[in-house]
Design a protein that fits this description.
By secondary structure, the chain is of the alpha/beta class. 20% of the residues are buried. The model has no long low-confidence stretch (mean pLDDT 86). The protein contains 5 helices and 13 strands.
């Protein structure tokens, strides 16, 4: 029969101390290796790969504008700061930054897609296809027929949505909705490319669409009574329940809506 004697307390303490020393030494060695690796030139960022549909920037301009703001190696680079550096560029809406071993960055960019100018003509703000306002050089906008939207801060998305509802209606007059304003009181005003100003009043998209449709379907007939065409409209006020006030070049009158047959 074999009997195992209990390990003396001093031996247990020595084993514990030895284990702790070994673990501590191994940790120090690992930390030193990691520190060496993070400082080693081989892991310094040397290449930038740009992906996404980008027309206003290329890898060279991005590198010139963003890389000087970055510091650290592949392991120490602050990805949040790097993403913010890319998104601070005027035409960049979103950036996704990834590390690529051993010394590269991969950046997926989403560029701003302008669909309208925002604010006064002298301002350099635009509205993207998400209804977000951003600042950029308007001289770089490739489309020369973008509408202009104007309204309270934070209402760009609502105004863009209303524009998209109303613009097709005015196309029936062979004209274009050139500007749409929303006042702080909630009243809408449209301006056509002919220069005509249309007071739409307040209400939902359906209500404004109904008023605009009534105007588009009857204004040619009303204008013809005064030997004018629809492009002679200087202004119209659609805020009447049963009709609209119309001002033609050289003529001022109030026209009732054509009754339904």
């Amino acid at each position: 029969m074999n009997f195992s004697l209990p390990t003396p307390l001093d031996v247990k303490l020595m084993n514990g101390v030895a284990t702790a020393l070994f673990v501590g030494f191994a940790g120090l060695v690992l930390a030193a290796l990691l520190g060496w690796a993070m400082r080693h030139p081989v892991f310094a960022i040397r290449a930038l790969s740009v992906q996404g549909e980008v027309t206003h920037y290329n890898a060279v301009t991005l590198r010139a504008n963003v890389v000087p703001q970055l510091s650290g190696s592949l392991f120490t680079l602050d990805l949040l700061h790097t993403r913010q550096a890319f998104e601070s560029l005027p035409w960049v809406r979103r950036a996704v930054v990834q590390r690529v071993f051993p010394n590269r960055l991969r950046v997926q960019l989403q560029e701003q897609q302008p669909v309208a100018f925002w604010g006064a003509p002298e301002e350099s703000r635009l509205v993207n296809n998400f209804g977000e306002v951003f600042e950029a050089n308007v001289g770089e906008v490739e489309q020369d027929d973008l509408p202009r939207l104007f309204g309270p801060v934070g209402q760009a998305a609502q105004i863009l949505q209303m524009y998209r509802s109303l613009a097709p209606i005015f196309e029936a007059l062979d004209t274009t909705l050139e500007r749409l304003d929303l006042s702080p009181q909630g009243s809408w005003r449209a301006q056509l490319d002919s220069g005509a100003v249309i007071e739409l009043g307040s209400g939902t998209a359906d209500e404004l669409s109904a008023r605009s449709t009534r105007f588009v379907h009857t204004v040619t007939q009303v204008a013809s009574r005064y030997q004018r065409h629809a492009d002679a409209v200087e202004s119209a006020d659609l805020r009447y329940a049963q009709g609209y006030a119309l001002r033609l070049q050289g003529v001022s009158t109030v026209a009732a809506a054509t009754p339904k047959k």
